[in-house]
Design brief:
The protein is an all-alpha fold and 414 residues long. Helix content is 75%, strand content 0%. It is globular and about 70 Å long. Bound molecules: aspartic acid.
Length: 414
């Protein structure tokens, strides 16, 4: 059975098991403690922990080995600017589209807000200087804190420096290449755990939340899903058509396994190894470029997250009886785009960053708790869109720079 099929069957079984547990076995302390909070929780968390364990070492060595193998270091700057601009452009499109579609929906309102509602979520978000936060003053603390962008910046710097003295350091280059192979193998081993991990994750979610959590939020949920799917098919096809000569059908046909995988992780960061593998093996993108653009995308490109944030801001504004003027829409677009750069590619990060947008608009932050019942499932879907965007832009830029093997891209069975 193919990997995708296995994961899909596990997902479905997880959802059914969760609903059955919620309806027939709960409340029951034993089931809650041992089955849900111990067994399901441990299995699903272990999978994420293992992926997170490998992601920074993998990025580190694959970027260095990638840059060392690029002969002309100056191309790196041009590639960086193109990739970054497209990442920002698609996020702007995503959030604008989310607001546009939301404006056709009428949500129920609970009336005017009282202003005594406080939340401490905003306290977590100090305004920080984005440029300075890219560079680590201490590489080891960047590693210890799991800061992808800082590890990326340091690796790029090592890679560039190493390319200047390439001839004198054959042992260093060989070591990095060998480590790269070992880490890739580790990734392949961890990925085998996906079916069991996704079963545990979905069974836990549906056992604790139940389907009832969805009912009051069904309209919001459907709007987000509609915008995610439309953006996924429309924006990325337009991007492929306008900026490349790549076969659009091939792009989507080969994306299935990656989408299913990110569904299981709800984390762009944890999916980096798999995304990297997909764009290199299936789409034929040059590995050096992919090992730079995929981690960058996982950190700054969050179209799906921006869509959720736009729809959520609109939904909560209506819920609290706040009218959004044109200026408020612009605020949402700008804040969500900046927030998406600062949002970590980890589960639930997007809903926490939503507080930034709500604060700007004066919407009570406690509205976030309203959304939590459906957020786990939406997180899976938006993360898949986030990662698909990274893959699409990586292919588009790679094609424009002749860094893609078109034969491999057009071959369906690799
Ligand atoms: N889970 C998302 C990601 O990793 C971020 C979010 O929207 O919560 O891309």
């Amino acid at each position: 059975m193919s990997f995708t099929k296995k994961v899909l069957i596990s997902m479905l079984s997880g959802i059914i098991a969760g609903i059955l547990i919620n309806n027939f076995l709960l409340p029951n302390d034993f089931i809650e403690y041992y089955l849900i909070n111990q067994i399901f929780f441990t299995i699903s968390s272990l999978f994420l922990i293992l992926l997170k364990m490998i992601v920074l070492p993998l990025i580190f060595v694959s970027i260095i080995s990638g840059i060392v193998s690029i002969n002309d270091v100056s191309t790196l700057g041009r590639l960086g600017i193109k990739t970054f601009s497209l990442y920002i452009l698609t996020t702007l499109v995503a959030i604008t589209f989310a607001l546009f579609i939301s404006s056709f929906v009428s949500y129920d309102s609970v009336g005017q807000i009282t202003n005594d509602i406080q939340s401490n979520i905003a306290g977590n978000m100090d305004q920080k200087n984005i440029i300075l936060s890219i560079f680590p003053s201490n590489f080891f603390s960047a590693l210890a804190n799991g800061n992808v962008i800082q590890v990326l910046a340091f690796a790029v710097f090592i890679g560039i420096s190493a390319s200047y003295v390439k001839k004198d350091i054959p042992i260093f280059i060989e070591l990095i290449d060998s480590l790269n192979k070992v880490f890739n193998k580790m990734v392949m081993i961890i990925i085998q755990l996906t079916p069991i991990a996704v079963f545990a994750l979905l069974a836990k979610t549906f056992a604790t939340e139940g389907v009832e959590a969805f009912i009051p939020l069904i309209k919001y949920f459907l709007v987000v899903v509609f915008v995610l799917i439309t953006h996924f098919f429309l924006t990325y096809s337009i991007l492929l058509r306008l900026f490349s000569n790549l076969n659009i059908y091939m792009f989507y046909a080969k994306l299935k396994a990656l989408i299913i995988f990110t569904f299981s992780t709800s984390s762009s960061n944890a999916s980096i190894p798999y995304t990297l593998n997909t764009v290199v093996q299936k789409y034929g993108v040059n590995k050096s470029f992919a090992s730079f653009s995929i981690p960058l995308g996982a950190t700054i490109n969050m179209d799906g997250t921006a869509i959720m944030q736009g729809c959520a801001a609109y939904f909560l504004a209506s819920y609290y009886g706040i009218d959004l003027a044109f200026g408020d829409m612009v605020t949402i677009i700008l804040t969500a785009t900046i927030a998406s750069i600062g949002t970590a590619g980890i589960p639930s990060a997007g809903i926490i960053m939503l507080s930034l947008i709500l604060t700007e608009l004066g919407i009570p932050l406690e509205g976030i708790t309203l959304l939590l019942g459906v957020d786990r499932l939406l997180d899976m879907m938006r993360t898949s869109v986030n990662v698909s965007g990274d893959a699409c832009i990586t292919c588009v830029v790679a094609e424009s720079e002749d860094l893609i093997d078109i034969k491999a891209f057009n071959k369906l069975d690799n």
